[in-house]
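OP here, attaching both records as promised.
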Amino acid sequence: MWYSFNQREVSELDSKNRNTMVDAETDTPSVNREIKDGVFKLLFETPENAAELYSALKGVPCSPDEIQIITITTIISGQLKNDLAFVVRGRAMVLGEHMSSPYDNMPVRFLMYLGQLYEKWIKMKGEEKYLYGSKLYKIPTPEFVVFYNGTTTRPEKETLRLSDAFEVEVDKDLGFLELEVPVYNINRGMNEEIFKKSPKLKQYSDFIAKVREFNQLYADYSQAVREAANYCIANGILSDFLREQGGKIVSILTAEFDVEIAKRVYGDEQREDERVKIAKNLLRRNRPIEEIMEDTGLSREEIEYLK
């Protein structure tokens, strides 16, 4: 087997990277609030992997010592969550990754992230006073990107715009704001040119694909993640990363999976549809899961969640 982690190792947050900017005032949660990390962030929060990804996107060489990682702590759906950005050569790149959730609102979220990023950047440099001087204060140029690897069919690349979220059309005689976000589909068969330039991104995509494959074989999603990780380690796919972060990855993906199941079962407003009501009635009568799946069209995971 690939690892044997204790509970502390499964849940602890990784804060060892010397290139990571941490703002104690804004990034330290209360003891009762756990900050969630994503697998994508864990992989690309190292300067080496961030430099590889930046080079693949920009088409120019980048070395790890040019990367300065910035963690942006946000509250989404009532949960504290760490998102990833980094500064390199006067540019601030904000990264977003979604496994399966809709991402049409990413421009609005990036707008919110950007204010936090600049506030943290200026504060950490101790240069707040220069904002009120007569000389123009220079800030890193913002850049945005989203990587999509959900199961819904989406194009290889598309562009989201902040202005699409505006209630009324902008008045171009006055000042207005636009923010464009390219979305790259990193499922298999998509954006092969980027994969060639960033092996880590391709291996990440392969790992998530393997998780989905093993999820078809095992009713327990945690076991599916573990088996997928075992397979990837044996086949040289993110081997070192999975050995080091294995327990945390199982915890993260299982938590995300539970949230997605909850959304599908109950809906955003926890409304029950007819299939859920039928499934609950059949569960009360101790009917086999396979029979409930056939009668309702719900997946095994959804029915297990209802139990």
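Record two, same layout:
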Amino acid sequence: MSHLFSILDVDNWMEFWWVAFGLGGQLMFSFRFIVQWVVSEREGRSIIPLAFWYFSIAGGIILLSYAIYRQDPVFILGQSLGVFVYSRNIWLIFREKRRKSRS
């Protein structure tokens, strides 16, 4: 196990699980591009599906939590802004859907 700790640059199990959590968030965050690419290929044009925003916000929140744990102000600031933007986009999408369903 010390070899794995060395690779991940952690000293204990708590740090290991935080790094695993952060890596999971990064994978989720990265997966949004795969989703966007697959949907765009199917449609034959560039599309940003709702799933893109869900992966963005989920990955962003996980990465923000990890950044807070690591006390990294640059990472915290970057992810905070991102989570706000992703939340706002989801809000705008649902507001538009509500408007369309009323008409």
